[in-house]
Each structure stands twice: as C-alpha cells, then as structure tokens.
Amino acid sequence: MRHIRTAARALIILDQKVLAIKMRDRTGVFYILPGGGQRHGETLRQGLERECLEEIGTEVEVGELLYIREYIGKNHEFRKSHHAFHQVEHVFSCSLPNPAGIGPGTEHDKKQIGVEWIPLADLPQRRFLPEAIKPFFKDGGFKPNSNYLGDVN
C-alpha cells in the first residue's frame, strides 16, 4: 500500500513580488513555493518553519491556511517520474520577520538552484508550478476561488 505524503508551503508576497524556489531538471527551469514534506511528529506549521529554514535560509511567520491542493502525479506532466506520487499540500500565507535574511538554506532540495522574488506581473511568462494558481494572484495579493483546489498542477 502506498502512502499519501502531506506537505506545507509558504506563500510570501512582498512589494508586488512572490518568493519562489528556483528549480532545474531535465525539462529546464521552473519555480515552486517554498516548503515541503511534513515529518512524523511535527505539525504542518512546524514543518513549514523547518522547510523554509532549509530552503530560503530564514525564519517565516506562518499565517492563515489559504488553500489545500492535491497532486496525484500520474495525472500530470511529470507522470513518468511521479506515477506513484500522491501529495496533499497545505499552503499558508506567510511573512518574513527579516526579508534581508534570505540566502542559502541549510538543506536544499536536490533540484533547487536558487531563491527568487518574482514580480507578480511576470508570473504569466514564468514556468511557475502549480500553474493552476497563477490566476489567483491579483491586485498585489492572492485570492483563490476555493480553499480546496483538488488535483491540480
């Protein structure tokens, strides 16, 4: 029996820009929100705080839950490598006590090549995953149409 992975991600908007993890794989460069898998015994908030320290090198203040998204790999573009992967992602609104503190974290994801502030106006031209959330960035903020987005990428 395969398990379902739970994860938490941080949506951080500052000065009309969203903070993203810059990734590279065989298909090229793409961007995702900071965060990752929850470990046994930690809350989603604790996991998100740990993941942000690892990936962006600074503490975050975890705010409200914005939405939940599922990712069932066999249904999306990475189906060959993610055919057995199923993740439930909890995305929180977060802020940075020290925005200047962003830098190398303690433990990058294997495909991570950097951290970047992406101007909201540039999102349509960037390969930002999940693509399904791009339309929710409006007026300098983020307004999803539902708190449960379903299986999207």
TrEMBL record:
It holds the Pfam family NUDIX. SUPFAM superfamilies: Nudix. Keywords: Hydrolase. It comes from the Bacteria. The keyword Hydrolase applies. Its cofactor is Mg(2+). Residues 3-142 form the Nudix hydrolase domain. PANTHER family: GDP-MANNOSE MANNOSYL HYDROLASE, MUTT_NUDIX FAMILY PROTEIN. This is NUDIX domain-containing protein.
